[in-house]
Design brief:
about 130 residues; mainly alpha; 3 helices; phosphoric diester hydrolase activity
């Protein structure tokens, strides 16, 4: 694996070297592994992905914060603020690369999963409509 990491580092360096010397240049955002969770609850059980459902009243409930808990997936507020901040920093980008998982760590495709993807797309379209 270290050989692969070295190869990737060299490729990124050469790509940056080449881009700096191009007459035309562009810009893009790269984000990864956001794991947006529509069911995140600030006071949910962190042992249940910060969800309230399935958690007896008062058991293992902690304040997970507005922006999430490391043991849980990303709350909508954090995604919305992240996208708004990206837009305020650079409104005009050529493309956005989103690698890794977008959705919460849910392992079955369901209506919940589909609605989550639709809501994520709507969040992006609020700022970048094409």
């Amino acid at each position: 694996m270290p050989a692969l990491e070295w190869y990737i580092e060299i490729c990124v360096f050469l790509l940056n070297f080449w881009l700096i010397r191009c007459e035309d240049s562009g810009s893009f955002w790269h984000i990864t592994d956001i794991h947006v969770d529509q069911n995140y609850s600030r006071f949910g059980n962190k042992e249940n992905l910060c969800h309230e459902e399935g958690t007896p009243n008062g058991i293992n409930k902690t304040d997970n914060g507005l922006y999430g808990n490391i043991l849980c997936d990303t709350p909508w507020l954090l995604l919305n603020l992240t996208v708004a901040s990206m837009y305020s920093i650079r409104k005009s980008v050529d493309f956005i690369i989103w690698t890794g998982l977008v959705r919460a760590r849910i392992y079955t495709i369901s209506d919940y999963y589909k609605s989550s993807l639709i809501n994520i797309a709507l969040c992006w379209n609020r700022y970048w409509d094409s």
